[in-house]
Design goal:
- The protein is an alpha/beta fold.
- Strands 1, 2, 3, 4, 5, 6 and 7 form a seven-stranded mixed β-sheet that branches.
- A hairpin with a 5-residue loop joins strand 4 and strand 5.
- The longest helix has 21 residues.
- It is rod-shaped.
Length: 256
């Protein structure tokens, strides 16, 4: 009978282990907000952070997606201690009464500045080849003007996250993450339809002469687009932020 009892206990080990894991679960409610300049990306960032945390497959962390309501005590202010107000908010707005912490993500700044373009008027030499009536080729060179233009954008992102105890309202972790990056593009333009025939010039013995060595470089500038696509940089910066938040939440030890 003792052996049977021990066997029955052994069979229940998996159940007991599962019960222990359930007791150790740390459910986190995730909400996100943005100021007026950054409105519209809070849902995107919220989903991305949740996805990054879940990809870590931490057995103890559970994620509940918040509704980002303006009724949240986190929406308009960020205190050092929220007290029992946070517990009343969770009880009123969420069915999950076992939430132990709230992760709030506040987008303080998300701005893209178009910096003033810089333009230079430069002298080039157009080289045109003509075939004469006698079948011989004639090369005609003449001075022309073209423009080199530089455009740039500055992308600035600042995000503050807090991990707040859902019962006492105490801030368990907090960090402001700032990212800034400049994006530049340089291109050349001319009013002529024969940009392929334009060479840059260099100064030689007080005269402007054809600069054959930099012809390919100028032609590449003529082919460059004149618009900056900042979306890839935005995506990369936001990806870096979401991964940093996810990593730090996973590393957080609620027992400390």
């Amino acid at each position: 009978e003792n052996l049977l009892d021990q066997s029955q206990t052994y069979k229940n080990a998996a159940i007991l282990q599962n019960q222990a894991l359930q007791c150790a679960k740390f459910p986190i409610l995730v909400e996100a907000y943005a100021n007026r300049n950054a409105s519209g990306i809070e849902n995107t960032l919220q989903n991305a952070v949740i996805e990054s945390i879940l990809q870590k497959k931490d057995p103890f962390i559970e994620i509940i997606k918040g509704n980002n309501s303006s009724r949240s005590p986190f929406y308009s202010r960020r205190e050092q201690n929220y007290g029992s107000e946070i517990n009343r908010y969770i009880t009123t707005n969420y069915y999950q009464n076992n939430i132990k912490a709230v992760l709030t993500i506040y987008i303080n700044q998300f701005q893209i500045y178009d910096n003033p373009p810089r333009e230079k008027n430069l002298l080039g030499i157009e080289v045109m080849k003509y075939t004469l009536e006698n079948g011989l080729d004639s090369i005609v060179e003449k001075e022309v003007n073209y423009r080199e233009i530089e455009k740039s954008k500055t992308i600035q992102i600042a995000i503050t996250y807090q991990l707040v105890d859902a019962i006492q309202g105490k801030i368990l972790a907090q960090r402001t993450i700032q990212k800034s990056e400049n994006q530049n593009i340089k291109f050349a333009r001319t009013d002529k339809n024969t940009s392929y025939s334009i060479y840059p010039t260099r100064l030689f013995m007080n005269q402007f002469v054809k600069d054959d060595a930099n012809y390919k470089q100028l032609q590449q500038l003529f082919q460059q687009p004149d618009m900056l696509d900042s979306q890839p940089i935005q995506n990369r910066l936001l990806n870096e932020i979401q991964n940093q938040i996810a990593y730090e939440i996973i590393q957080f030890n609620p027992e400390k």
